[in-house]
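hiii, so i know i said id send this last week but things got crazy w the move. better late than never?? heres the sequnce for the chain we talked about at the cafe, plus the structure i predicted for it. fair warning i was half asleep when i ran it
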Amino acid sequence: MSGNSGRQAGAVSRRKYLLSSAAIGAAGLAGCSGNSGSDGGDGGDGSDGSDDGDGSDSSNTIESESSAPATVTAEGSSTVYPISNKGSSYWNSNSPASDGEYWGSNSEGSVAGWDQIETDMNIADYFASLYGFEPSGERSNPPFATRVALSHSGTGCEAVRDGLVDIGNSSGPITAELDISESERDENYVDHVVGRDGQPVFVSQEIYDAGVEQLTGDQIRGIYQGDITNWSDVGGPDREIFVVGRAEGSGTDTSFRLNMLGDADASMDVDSRFGQNQQVQQVLQDNDNAIGYMALAFAGSGIQAIAIDFEGTVYRPDADAENTIFDSEYPLNRDLHMYTRINDETPSGTDMREAAFLNMFLTEFGQKTFVEDVNYITLPTSDIESERAKLPDQA
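okay and structure toks below
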């Protein structure tokens, strides 16, 4: 990323960008409208979720300060949601460079990665200007708004496929979510990986305290396929195991089946399924004999992530351990995706609005603030460079 703010500001012009907005879609579960061209409620991000124009046209042209491109909309995975929604909140705030806490630097400190940016522009103004959008210079008034809805990975992938949103958030690969081939994926979508999740397996606090601090991969497979039904069979108390799964269509469920059971369609024997990570978290906290899998970001009190022995290598939920769930070698490690759609209007698959927003996550600032700070795994530098290469050239 360039540290020359003057050059970046100079790159801004009143050139026209014809930006096709997404078709009108269904409202997301977080009270957000799932389309690019309409006004809507807030996205759970602390902003009003509206764009700067009247939002009534299917496309907008940047030509003057009174016109603005369509809102960038995203929907999907509850796992990716903390990253995407926090980024949207920061974007819509358009905080000035004098803030220091959320963006920029002041006498009390600087945001992570600021030494690689050092601009006098507001946050959304800066990242949007890299792609030719004119800055507003006003807090809470970004060059265009962003809005993120909460649903499931499968729903997010379907929504971007159908043109209902600009970005489909998914914690599972779109090939599995839409049952398409890799060639179909490459012909129709761009896969923007913004972070990783070392997907843990959690047990209720009482089970952990009773001695179940570690299981083998075979034992977990046995539990989820109905072969092991009592905690006493794996060194725990004499209690039936309450087996919790994520909803089918969830990227977390798809990834778990792929990585743990060997097939995205593998059969499972669970007592209850839930649509969101938050719901799994609550059930494990409320039960004294449960096991479940969810995203790393949803660890909390009353539950414990366990160590897992995969063929002699023990991966622990401890960043300082010899082998940890944060390692890329951890078998349940998975990419967190934001998919965009290749179409006639955007043959590259990512328009300038989407690129400006996505690029914010692919910086040291973005990886620290939106990935690491919500308990996910940041991308290595080489991967960040590869992901940025998928974006259109900056202005």
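btw The radius of gyration is 22 Å. thought thatd interest u
miss u guys!!
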